[in-house]
C-alpha cells in the first residue's frame, strides 16, 4: 500500500507534510482504521455527562503537578534543623519530608501554587467522582452492559480516597501525622492480625522512620499506576458501550443522538480541559489548602484540636467519632469495638453502593441491555435508596467535623454527636420515605401533564358562569419523552405446584425476591403511566374538564 | 588641730557647729525617715481597695459572695490575684451575663481604672499573681519558633494549631486567640480561667510564656500574612472540603453547564 501511495504522490507532486507524517504513522500504527472507527463516535449532549470529564481532567492535572512536586520533595524521615525562609519554624527539628515541603512552599519557584493546585485538584477530583457516580446511579446508567464499568468507577473512587490519604500524609506535619496515627489505631483494632499489619506497615512501632518513604511509593507509583490503568479501561469501555442518553423522540436503545467526537467533541473536550484547569488554578491561587507551615512538624507527643482528614475520609472519621468507645477484654486481649466496628461499617457502607447494580438486576430479573437513561423519578425505589445512602454519608461527614460544627453553631459537641448517632439510623429511613413520596408525586404530575396538558394559567369563564383553567396539550415530542420509560411488573413466586401436581416449596430467596420486587414495582410504589386508551378517552371530549 | 582649738572661742564657732549639727540631723533624717512617696502609694492603694470594694459589692458580690468567699453561683476569689481580675473583667467575661457552660468574651463594661480598683480589692483578699508588666509579654527577646513548639505541646490540643479555637465537652470551648491582647493571653496562662488549666511559672517559665505570645502574634496576629491566599478560617480540612465542593466543583459544574449549552444544535435553534 505504501508503494502505491508513493507512486501516487510522486505523480501528483509531493504530498503535504501533514499527510506524509500521517501516512508514515499509519504504516506503522494503523491509525487510519482506528480513526475511521472512532472519529465519528457520537456523544450525546448533556451537562451531566461532562462530570466524568471533570474527574478525568483533574486527574491529569494531579499527575502533572505531582510530577513537579516529586522533583523537590524528599521522602525521608531523617531529622534535620530548619533554616529556610519561614521565620516561625527557624531552628526547629523536623523530618526531611516536612522540611522539603516547607521549601516547596517558600523557596521553590511556583512551588506553593503547584502544591495548592495539586491538593485542590485532589479535593475536586474526589468530589467530582462522587457526583459523577451519583449521576450514573440515579439515571440507572449502571445497568447491563455497564456493570463492570460501574465497578471500575467505584474502584477509582476508593483508590482515589487512599491515594489522597497517603499524599496528605507525606508532608509529615502535625495534622497528617495525627491522621496516620488514627489509621494505625484503626489497623490495631483488627483482631489477631492488627498488630502484625501495623508492625509490618510502619516497620516497627509507630511512627518509626519508614512510613513516609513507604507511603511515597504507594502514593506516587502503586495507587496512581492502578488508577491510570482503571481510567484507561473505564474510557475504553465508555467507547465500547457507547454513551447512554436520555429518552426522547428519535432516541432508541439502538442509536445515540448527539455530536461526533471529531471535530465537535474534541474541541469541546479540549476546551473543557483548559477550563477545568483554569478553575482549579484559580481556586489554588485564591485559597490556601493544607498550610503545613502553620501546623508544625509531626511529633508523637503533640496533637491539635480540629484534626480532620480531607473530606473524602471524613465519613470514616465521623463513624469513629460517633461510635461509643466500647471495648471487650478477653483473656488478656483487648477487642476495641469502638474503632473496629466503624472500620467494618466503613467497608460495608462503601460496598453497599458498589453491589447495588447487581441487587437491582436480581430483583428485576432484567437481563436486557439498557442504553436509555431513567429519569430518577421513574425509578422511585432506586432513587430513594440512593438518597438514603447519601444522607447517611452526609450525616457521617457532619460527625467527622462535629467539633467545628459545635464551635461555629454554638452547640454542645455532645449534642452534635448524639444527633449524628441517631441520624445515622433515622436519617436514611426518613430520606427514603420522603424521596419515594416526592418521586411518586412527580410521576403523578407527569401523568397529569400527559393526560390533561400543561396548566396555562389562563382562567376562562364559561357562559353559564363556571370558571375553568385552560390546559394546553403537550407537544407530541414532550408526551413521548414523558411516557418513554418502561414499567416493570412485580415478580411473583412461580407456581407452587408443578405440572404433575406435586407441591414444590418456594425457596426463601424466591420469596425475598418477590417481596423486594413488590416493594420496587408493586401497587403504590409506582404510578402506572398513562395508556393510549386513557389519553384517547380524555381528549375525545367525553368527561373533559 | 591646733588651729581648730585656737579658734574654738571664735564668735562664729557656735554658728558653724549649729550648721553642722543641722546638716547632720537633716541628712540622717533624709536617709532614715520613712519615704514620703511610699506613704502616698499606700494611701492610693488603700483608696483603690476601698473603691474596688464598692464596685465589687455592686457588680460581683451576688455570685462571688460579699467577701469574695464564693457562693454556689460563683467560685471563691481569695487568692486568685489581680491578674485573674484583669483578665476576666478586661476581656468582658465578667461580670457574667447569664450562667451557662462557659462565660463568653464580650464587650468590656468597666474602664481600665475601675478594673484596676477591682483587681486591687480582690488581690487584697489573698496573695495571687499580679498583673504582668509589659516587658513580660512584649516581643523583645522572644523565640518565635520555640514558642510554636511550646504552643503545639501545651495549647494546640484545645486551641488548634494556630489558636483558632476548638470545642470542649458539653458546650464548653477553647476560644479563638485572634485579637486577644497579649497581656490577657499571659494572664490566662498564669491564672487558668474557666475551663483552662493554669500554667504557673513553675510549669511554663516567664520566657516560655513570652515565646508563646510571640508565636501567636506571628501566626495569628493582625499582621500575619497568609502566603497561600484566603486562610478559610485556618480550621483545616473541614472548611477546605466545603470550599472545594462549593467553589471548586461548583465552578467546574457551572462551566460544564455553560459548555453543554453551547452546541452546534443550540446555535441552530
UniProtKB/TrEMBL annotation, chain A:
Under SUPFAM superfamilies, the record lists: Transmembrane di-heme cytochromes (SSF81342)
Q: Does the keyword Transcription apply?
A: no
Name the EC number(s): 7.1.1.8
Q: Which Pfam families match?
A: Cytochrom_B_N_2
The UniProt record lists the Cytochrome b/b6 N-terminal region profile domain at 21-247
Entry cofactors: heme
User: Which reaction does this chain catalyze?
Assistant: a quinol + 2 Fe(III)-[cytochrome c](out) = a quinone + 2 Fe(II)-[cytochrome c](out) + 2 H(+)(out)
* Keyword set, alphabetical order: Membrane, Transmembrane, Transmembrane helix
User: Where do the TM regions start and end?
Assistant: 49-73, 119-138, 150-170, 182-203, 215-240, 261-287, 335-359, 379-398, 418-435
Q: What is this protein called?
A: Cytochrome bc1 complex cytochrome b subunit
Organism from which the protein derives: Streptomyces viridiviolaceus
TrEMBL record, chain B:
- The EC category is translocase
Annotated TM spans = 242-261
* Domain Cytochrome c residue range list: 47-126, 142-220
Alphabetized UniProt keyword annotations = Cell membrane, Electron transport, Heme, Iron, Membrane, Metal-binding, Repeat, Respiratory chain, Signal, Translocase, Transmembrane, Transmembrane helix, Transport
As recorded in UniProt, coiled-coil segments are: none
**Membrane disposition:** Multi-pass membrane protein
Superkingdom classification of source: Bacteria
Q: Which reaction does it catalyse?
A: a quinol + 2 Fe(III)-[cytochrome c](out) = a quinone + 2 Fe(II)-[cytochrome c](out) + 2 H(+)(out)
Give the primary localization class: membrane
- Which residues does UniProt assign to the signal peptide? 1-30
Q: What is its EC number?
A: 7.1.1.8
Compartments where located: Cell membrane
Which PANTHER family does the annotation name? CBB3-TYPE CYTOCHROME C OXIDASE SUBUNIT FIXP (PTHR33751), CYTOCHROME BC1 COMPLEX CYTOCHROME C SUBUNIT (PTHR33751:SF13)
How this chain assembles, per its entry, is:
The cytochrome bc1 complex is composed of a cytochrome b (QcrB), the Rieske iron-sulfur protein (QcrA) and a diheme cytochrome c (QcrC) subunit.
Name the UniProt record assigns to this protein:
Cytochrome bc1 complex cytochrome c subunit
In the record, what lineage is assigned to the organism producing the protein? Bacteria, Bacillati, Actinomycetota, Actinomycetes, Kitasatosporales
